[in-house]
Amino acid sequence: MSSHLEVFKPTGRELVPLGGQRVTLGKASGNAIALEHDDTVSRLHAVFENLGSAWSIRDMGSRNGTYLNGEKITAERVLHSGDEVRVGKSRLIFWMVREAADGRRDEETVAAQPVDAPPRLTRRELDVLVVLCRPLVSDDPFPEPASVRAMAGELYVTEAAVKQHLQNLYDKFAVPTEGDRRVRLANEALRRGAVTLAQLRDGAT
């Protein structure tokens, strides 16, 4: 099994392989993952620990905290492929590749093979995705995908209708049931190109 972090920086996206027993993350240049551009990140902000068959993340007493799928962590947390980590204004996504019994690789990372094309969406499902993902391109240092209530208000539909569309999207994007599914769906939609930055910035679909 190999693991990577997809790190989003002002200069673009970087894919950082995880190796060894621990990988440090922070603003200081001596960290394995140095976020020197982000003044809201502590010098030693968080650490990734190799558990053998998995990786975990732990906050190192940072001043602004470490967030996993939109939730501030207060203890060590095991990571799952597709999890979103936010430190300061920076965003990272954890990906894994597992070896199948026959030696083939079960790809769960954007680094190992071309990104899957997005599933076929209805017009309304695309509208829901755009509204869901739009907060991720805001200036908020800790952005989260839009809530069900916010989406219902912007689309002029009921919350029940939004929840039904989200359930359909979870199925189409094969979003796991554990964790914050809205965060995972937003990450998958952006990763697979189901929505574009232009759509998110101007609201057009």
Automatic annotation (TrEMBL):
Transmembrane segments: none
InterPro entries attached to this UniProt entry: Cell_Proc_Reg/RNA_Proc, FHA_dom, Sig_transdc_resp-reg_C-effctor, SMAD_FHA_dom_sf, WH-like_DNA-bd_sf
SMART domains: FHA (SM00240)
One GO molecular-function entry: DNA binding
Pfam families: FHA (PF00498)
Domain FHA: 23-73
Keywords linked to the UniProt accession: Phosphoprotein
Aminoacyl-tRNA synthetase in keyword set: no
Any single biological process term in GO: regulation of DNA-templated transcription
PANTHER family, A to Z: NUCLEAR INHIBITOR OF PROTEIN PHOSPHATASE-1 (PTHR23308)
Protein name per Swiss-Prot or TrEMBL: FHA domain containing protein
Species classification: Bacteria, Bacillati, Actinomycetota, Actinomycetes, Mycobacteriales
